[in-house]
Amino acid sequence: MDFDDTALAGLQDALPDAEFRELLSDYLASTAARMAKVQVLRAAQNWNDLAFEAHTLVSTGGGYGLVRASTLARSLQEACKAGDADQASALAVELVAATTRGCEALRSRFLGGRTAAAA
Amino acid sequence: MSLDLRSKLILAVDDSPEDLALLNAIVMGAGYTFVGAASGEDALSLVHRCTPRLILLDIQMPGLGGVETCRRLRENPQLRTVPIAFLTACKTRGDVKEGLVAGGNDFIVKPIHRDTLLQRVQHWTNHRIAAPKAA
Predict the structure, then answer these.
(1) Rounded to two decimals, what is the model's pTM?
(2) B12: helix, coil or strand?
(3) In chain A, which end has fewer C-beta atoms inside a 10 angstrom radius, N or C?
(4) Do B114 and A64 touch (CB under 8 A)?
(5) ipTM computed for the complex
């Protein structure tokens, strides 16, 4: 599952609509930037920094309901720490794809389709 | 929204803006007052201006890490009875031991789940911890 909307449903009820939408829009924008960073770090084979970025994505992905991306980020972090370049490289590609799908599902579920934030 | 909850200030320390925003939304949405710090250094500065009822502290941060931040927070006499809960994406036996020795009281495993977080926040904001005995 790329996206679990129950992670945010309770929050949607607790927050004013504008605040909730702003929270999600900010998340989508920052995640697009993080995915660009993941791709740059992968291309540079900078596994140390990629491990740190993956560590952050374990948490942010899961907190916003991107369950598949969170799981992949944890695997990526472990591969980077183990120095397994082939595995890390493949997982980074998979992470970007899963995150893009998860963000699109989040946007569709809570923001009513596409927003300014790029996938 | 309860006045009682609003009087309870939660300080969260996390270098991830996304996590800090989510913590803010969850905690404020439940009626508490929230202040965020993006680093351990910022947190140490903030606590000179306000005394939180609970501190949520990320472990892995650039600069001053969560465990060292906890140790330094505990050196402040005003914070000796303030609960500190670590937020971490990777909880190991070593993390737990180190965190407890540094003065932490709880571990909340990331990703952040709203219901779990609010249960822990409610628990810790209703409890004062005992000040450590002088050596």
Answers:
(1) 0.91
(2) strand
(3) N
(4) no
(5) 0.89
